[in-house]
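User: Fold this; tokens only.

Assistant: Input:
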Amino acid sequence: MRTLVFEPDHTGHHFPYVSHMLPAVAALGETVLVTGRGAPESEPYRAVVRPLEGTVRVDATAEPPFGTPWESARQRAAALLAAVERHRPDHVIVMYADGVGQALALRRLRGRRVFPRAVEAEALFLRGGFAYPGGSVRRRAFARAAWALAERAPFTRFHHLDPLVFERLDPSKWNLMPDPVESPPPEPAPAARRRLGIPVEGRYIGCAGMMDARKGVDLLLAAFAGAGLRADDRLLLAGPHDAPIRALLAGPYAPLVRAGRVVSLDKFVSGDVFTGAIAAMDVVCTPYPAHIGSASIVIRAAAAERPVLGASRGWIGWAVRTMGLGWTTGVGDAAGLAGSIRTALEGAAGWRRPEIGARFVLFHSPENFARAWCVGLRRRLGLPPEAGLIAWEWVVAGARETASAGGPAGT
């Protein structure tokens, strides 16, 4: 059995996803990773793929796409088909099918060949704007049309990352895929703060990752400044700041920075540093104003047993409420968000991750992500799913049990 794994993008979450599933897939037979021309020179490649070069054949020939999102999708679809023609695999895994699936569906609807008859292909979709309310009439119509095409993509197995999208799909055709997040060893907040070289005393609320308005960091700064908190309460911003956030920290919020009330780690954070930033917080805040889909920082906070103060809408609001992960809040009103910050910091000391939250974390483990990718391959090899595979239904059953018992829920 020869498997082709198609992931032309080595940036962002793309190669971490590959790192979690590639060893498990390679253990089942000959495996080819098709990626972009620039990937072998990148740090993610050196960390993730190079250790596997003895067991995985690498084809780094995909050209970087350019142009509009639709032009880029057509180019990635063409690169995938060329790779299938070149390597003649039995099984194809597309790690990021948004756009590619729609381009392949159009090709199929026009009567053009897609995959050879004996090839089975499976793919992961991350987007699903049709499942989220809001936006203009034109935007909603586009989202519905794009999803209608996704449903017609020529894949044998379909995966999605978002439970809010998945609950509107046919479960006989679609599988809910984990968003892989490692569970770090427990680390007390003071130890994490010392490791990061930041003040140890006081209570911390914060966020990690890219610091920009898309993640509501401007809203968080305004609310923190106006919350009337204790003198030793701090806001931790861990991750690269974009220019507008830097301007806010150098301008209206400079006094808070000078006083050590806003702690800014304006640099790329990954691995132990990212984990340490989460562990250093008493509350992880995700005030994303218009986020669609999974937000892995919420899963990371649950894995580190830190409560979340999250936006009330979308996946974040659903996850925090359903899994008992902390508190939700509207983010458009600075006074309301400020009040929620006070509530969360006061409640953090007594918060404990419930059983449903622990199930949620186990489902999203990297090991479960790898097992889920191998189900189709193992079936073709006459093997059952790997022992230890955690189904989403087990998590949902836990949510029902928690609700019926009047258990913890977000507010």
